[in-house]
């Protein structure tokens, strides 16, 4: 019998189900603001919200929290939908927008005014923040705090129809200017913003504040468990206050730790800065922490979901080692990626006793981890390329690959022996190796009894196709690029995060489609970049075979 341990959110939910709270329903939501592309941190929230609903036979809404007209855009809505679907989740017909509730939210604000729980303040933003006080010192009540309900209703209505300038008036909740929780010191509910909204156009010139819109949207949708990140813990009393004052359905807000992977930034605002400043090539640059960047880099949805699962649900913020995510994608691609021969840094080898013009087909296994993946034919001929690093002119004792007079096996082919080499004396570069092959050593029918210590990958020179290969390193040089508040995170950008090299690959790679995954044997996992053309194939290295960063 399997013993499954519950995370703390599941504990709460199972308690609620057994108490028949909300009639035993589980209803969550993923609530992105459409002001940028989703990042790996969001995948934690997506897996948690959609995954928890699935687990308990409930529902999960996709709700765009679009209350900030200036920064939001339909492009972002579309990318967010694409990324959630790609991760493997489906909201069916439950796609909602906070902006769909603007009329209802306005009515809620009017109800608060009528209860004497909200007022229009004429103070400037500076005056309001100067009188807010400090956590240990009470704030000062606004001189407009005791306006009559009638006057507030009239002013709020006139805010709505556009009579006042931006910043000249604001609707505030009337709570407690001496509360130790600063969020309860008469927080703003509605502000004037004369900006077109990506969905409601020019219909509104006042917009609800996040705290007001968010909880009430949850309530309108019948959400039962509103899962959000830890920074909202201090907002929870306000979340609860609005729902109680308005006496509406009351979802429970539960906070969990943000996912902050090492060597990355996960803030849409900072990612936008990287895109706008051309520090990267767009939102889906394979070095970005965005879901679209990971997709383009060759990560699979399964690898991201498994990673989110493995790191669990924490109550305290911390940095998660990015090596865990790399491990997860290695594990997944090992099972699914077809093996190909590819040489990243080619060195020409002439097999002097192999007949000129002859081509021999070698049987190569497509995926040793997948019996059904079958085999393919690899052409072998007199001239091949091997990896430059697989030869040393003067090898140390522990180097078992090629050197003058040494023997190695070419995978799926023959054992070869290095007889001679050419060297460019001016640069010291080895230009060609001359080897002989032993016809009795063919893989699968070796009768020679020879033992060699290394097996090399190779491609036939006349059959190989050129391949541009993009090697990625961490985008930032420090674990926590935003940890030092004195410094701009861009100071920690890694100038060597992208290296482009020209390699050679076996001919079968020409039938790959954009984003297809492969393993170049001995090199790592790669995918075909969507910018590839028939004339120019481009491969992204997703991850190396082993964790080269392990200390
Ligand atoms: P950003 O600073 O990147 O804009 P955000 O929290 O403002 O992040 P939202 O679009 O509001 O972004 O996020 C949607 C949901 O995803 C929210 O519930 C938020 O708490 C959650 N979320 C955002 N970032 C992370 C993260 N790094 N780890 C886990 N959940 C996250
Ligand atoms: Mg947010
Ligand atoms: Mg944000």
UniProtKB/TrEMBL annotation:
EC number: 6.1.1.18
Entry's Gene Ontology molecular function annotations: ligase activity
Keyword vocabulary terms for this entry: Aminoacyl-tRNA synthetase, ATP-binding, Cytoplasm, Ligase, Nucleotide-binding, Protein biosynthesis
Main location: cytoplasm
Coiled-coil regions listed: none
EC top class named in words: ligase
Catalytic activity: tRNA(Gln) + L-glutamine + ATP = L-glutaminyl-tRNA(Gln) + AMP + diphosphate
Chain residues that bind ATP: 33-35, 39-45, 229, 258-259
Subcellular location: Cytoplasm
InterPro entries in the cross-refs: Gln-tRNA-synth, Gln/Glu-tRNA_Ligase, Gln_tRNA_ligase_bac, Glu/Gln-tRNA-synth, Glu/Gln-tRNA-synth_Ib_cat-dom, Glu/Gln-tRNA-synth_Ib_codon-bd, Rbsml_bL25/Gln-tRNA_synth_N, Ribosomal_bL25/Gln-tRNA_synth
Domain Glutamyl/glutaminyl-tRNA synthetase class Ib catalytic: 26-333
CDD domains: GlnRS_core
Motif position, 'HIGH' region: 32-42
Segments carrying motif 'KMSKS' region: 265-269
Pfam families: tRNA-synt_1c, tRNA-synt_1c_C, tRNA-synt_1c_C2
Residues holding L-glutamine: 65, 210
Domain Glutamyl/glutaminyl-tRNA synthetase class Ib anti-codon binding, first and last residues per copy: 337-438
Every tRNA synthetases class I (E and Q) anti-codon binding domain range: 456-529
Subunit organization: Monomer.
PANTHER family assigned to the protein according to its UniProt record, in alphabetical order: GLUTAMATE--TRNA LIGASE (PTHR43097:SF5), GLUTAMINE-TRNA LIGASE (PTHR43097)
Protein name, per record: Glutamine--tRNA ligase
Organism: Splendidivirga corallicola
